[in-house]
Amino acid sequence: MGKFQARAVGKGDYDGIRKQIVEVLEQPGYDDGSAGPVLVRLAWHASGTFSLVEHNGGSNGAGMRFGKERDDPANAGLVHAIEFIMPIQAANPWITHADLWTLAGVTALEAMKGPKVPWRPGRTDYDDESHADDHRGNIGDRLPDGALGADHLRHVFGRMGYSDQEIVALSGAHNLGRCHADRSGFDGPWVVNPTRFSNQYFKLLSTRKWTPRKWDGPFQYETIVAGERLMMLPTDMALMEDPEFKKWVLIYAKDQKKFFEDFALAFGKLIELGVDRDDSGFSRLVNKAAREGKPLDKVGGGCPFASAIKQGKTELDKNPRESKL
Ligand code: HEM
């Protein structure tokens, strides 16, 4: 840990919490010197358990504090992310873990020069393990497996209500951080500067020659850039092998602004999935999609985040009931 000292701020002072998250990011002895990438992954894995079909999972509950979800091999290493920000929650018990984890993800993303992602509080924490288990569905089946291909990506992200375009946009998060042999088994970063968000991942994916790595670990691809070994997972390569996915890889490789806008929308949706804080804002759209059994992008009304993102807002309208859903 660095020199960070958590402080109590007033109830509801989310800017005060954001400031402390930014202070936590600098971690000289850890990975590439930043807690940012693993915090983005924490927000994603907390949310990516959502099922539109069973209508459970999602970032509500902070279930990763409990047995099954904590021990899911897909979540290996996320304990570091939780520990980095735990002191902030301890000093400010008014904020739920579920809110803090998602807020940390969007704050870290922005601090690493990524887009602003609208965030709203209101997630609750499960009281105990039994409650968490009831609401998480088939833990172990929900998060994607990097060793698989395009069909698997459509299966996993389709369950959350995502389109092909959104799957590609979200995958661009692999511009951050690295794989760890002692966590997922895979090894190495995707890009040369893995603590700065950009569209580098798409550029490398579409322009470099990627070859299977000869090593003792799981099957993965590699290329050498400026003397550094970079990697791609089979799921990353699937984005170039599938023509529909590839179309978006090429667009995002050329147009970073478009990538940032689409990523902000898709990530904003992700952290709202399954958040039943009330029947307003995005929850209303998610609930409507669940009732109709349709992917989110096929539900009438569009995404309420769209205009907020275009205006670079990070907080949604104070009264979301008035937003035009
Ligand atoms: C498309 C399917 C995906 C697969 C198969 C996948 C798989 C993986 C794997 C195997 C790792 C390495 C974990 C480790 O060894 O520490 C990883 C890291 C990471 N993933 Fe993904 N991921 C996917 C999608 C996403 C999405 C949607 C996001 C966020 C929007 C994301 C964000 C990250 C980040 C930031 C890291 C780096 C974490 C660190 O540096 O500790 N991933 N992912």
From TrEMBL:
Give the enzyme's EC designation: 1.11.1.-
Where is this protein found? Mitochondrion intermembrane space; Mitochondrion matrix
Chief subcellular location: mitochondrion
Which Gene Ontology molecular-function terms are recorded? Answer: cytochrome-c peroxidase activity; heme binding; metal ion binding
Q: Which UniProt keywords apply?
A: Heme, Iron, Metal-binding, Mitochondrion, Oxidoreductase, Peroxidase, Transit peptide
Classify the source by domain of life: Eukaryota
| Chain segments annotated as coiled-coil in the UniProt record | none
The reactions it catalyses are:
2 Fe(II)-[cytochrome c] + H2O2 + 2 H(+) = 2 Fe(III)-[cytochrome c] + 2 H2O
Task: Note the InterPro entries from the entry.
Answer: Ccp1-like, Haem_peroxidase, Haem_peroxidase_sf, Peroxidase_I, Peroxidases_AS
Q: What's any one GO cellular component for it? A: mitochondrial intermembrane space
Mitochondrion in keyword set: yes
Plant heme peroxidase family profile domain location, by residue?
95-307
In the record, which residues are listed under signal peptide? Answer: none
Pfam families from the xrefs? peroxidase
Per the record, the GO terms for biological process are:
cellular response to oxidative stress; hydrogen peroxide catabolic process; response to reactive oxygen species
Into which family does the record put it?
Answer: Belongs to the peroxidase family. Cytochrome c peroxidase subfamily.
Job of this protein: Destroys radicals which are normally produced within the cells and which are toxic to biological systems.
Q: What is this protein's record name? A: Peroxidase
Q: Which organism is it from?
A: Filobasidium floriforme
> In the record, what lineage is assigned to the organism producing the protein?
Eukaryota, Fungi, Dikarya, Basidiomycota, Agaricomycotina
